[in-house]
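Sigma-70 family RNA polymerase sigma factor, pasting as requested.
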Amino acid sequence: MTGEFTQLLAGWRGGDRAARDRLVGMAYPELHAIARRQLAGERRDHTLQPTALVNEAYLRLSGLERIDWQDRIHFVRLAARIMREILVDHARRRSAHKRDGGERMSLTALDQIAGDAADAGIDLVSLDEVLGRLEAFDADKARIVELRYFGGLTIEETAEAVGLSPATVKRHWQVARAWLFDALADQG
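Structure tokens follow.
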């Protein structure tokens, strides 16, 4: 499957829309799992469901032309980032309609991020802001958070994607989680 996936990415890069559509169809189960993970921490009455999130991400992905796709992990990382952006945009629109400016995250949610749980119930707008701050001074750690938390990649897959050893990724992941915990606590 990896070889076919890479061939389809090359076809998409060359402008082949049929390759793009086949690739997204092949990746759909993984994209749906990412969407479920990202929505797991949202409120129960969230208007977006995993299928709708995947569909919206597909629309955004399919509108991208001439991307220099590298591999499956690059594709998954971009899809996860797009899903995160969709959820953050959705949360910002929802917060704009509230007088108090949105929901605050609980200490339980912060503890869960520090404990490596993907369903922490975090305010995505706050998380997006602190992740941007992390990226400004340590892009590697921000990328690891993005791949692990939003993309759902394992330590080994993340290590392969960023070109580091699994032990180094694990250390960076622990430091980044602790930093996020502190940064989110400061915002609350």
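Note for the archive: The domain at 107-187 is CATH 1.10.10 (Arc Repressor Mutant, subunit A).
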